[in-house]
Design goal:
The chain is mostly helical and 59 residues long. Helices cover 41% and strands 0% of the residues. The chain is built from 2 helices and no strands.
């Protein structure tokens, strides 16, 4: 488990460029790039280690 204390709710969503972006930032919503990049790296690393299928062997 990893916590990102500088990131708010929905820190991995990059859709915060609309008319409500200012309210999202004030409310603690919106993307936090450093945390999002680290989280995506960890997620894809986990998938690669645990969910990647084994390669078939030639018989």
């Amino acid at each position: 488990m990893k916590e990102y204390p500088d990131a708010g709710h929905s820190f991995m969503n990059r859709h915060n460029d609309g008319p409500l972006a200012v309210l999202e930032r004030v409310g603690g919503f919106g993307c936090h790039d450093p945390s999002a990049e680290d989280a995506w790296r960890r997620i894809f690393g986990f998938f690669g280690r645990h969910l990647q299928g084994e390669k078939p062997t030639a018989d």
